Amino acid sequence: MEPWIAPSILAADFTRLGAEINDVLAAGADIIHFDVMDNHYVPNLSIGPLVLNSLRKSGIDCLIDVHLMVKPVDRLIGDFLEAGATIVSVHPETTEHLHRTLNVIRKGGAQPGIVFNPATPLTVLAEVIELVDLVLIMSVNPGFGGQSFIESSIQKLQAARTLIEQSGRQVRLEVDGGIKPANIARVAAAGADTFVAGSAIFASDDYAATIREMREALNGTAKS
Hints:
alpha/beta; TIM Barrel; 9 helices; 8 strands
């Protein structure tokens, strides 16, 4: 699969969110990562389906990858489907019936994803790999932006890639947390093909230059 750069709007300027999204898309982003936090499952509070609905109504029609860090998760899934999510990813700890939850997402017209925290084993992945289009490996503990990459995530990405390959399905392997031009190539070598970057992009002075630097690193053309 072609690599995707996925800016996380958690790091964007929320006073001009629509403009920020349009700016990173113009700068070369492939998909927008939409972090939803509830101050219950994770220790922070972010945005909900009304924000996504407003963005869609404003004319933003790009792929939007909704990462639900909420518990219980099932109540909100329908709202995000209606609001226009392209992908909806859930943590296995946030639902009592993961199989059912993933099917609800699929039947609602979005692509289902599953998310693994740093301390969450991949055990359940083999049970639901036929139901998902995306596997997200958290390379930081969820809840805050700007954290440092957890090195053990490399081995987890490799293990997840093996399970995906064994399934024979086209499943994206996404990584979220501490991704930047300096480490994106190593993360890609471990099996990731979709790269969430918040602070690395939105805190930079030039979104296009940062995304270009990431692509050059992925292509092995970055200057030393």
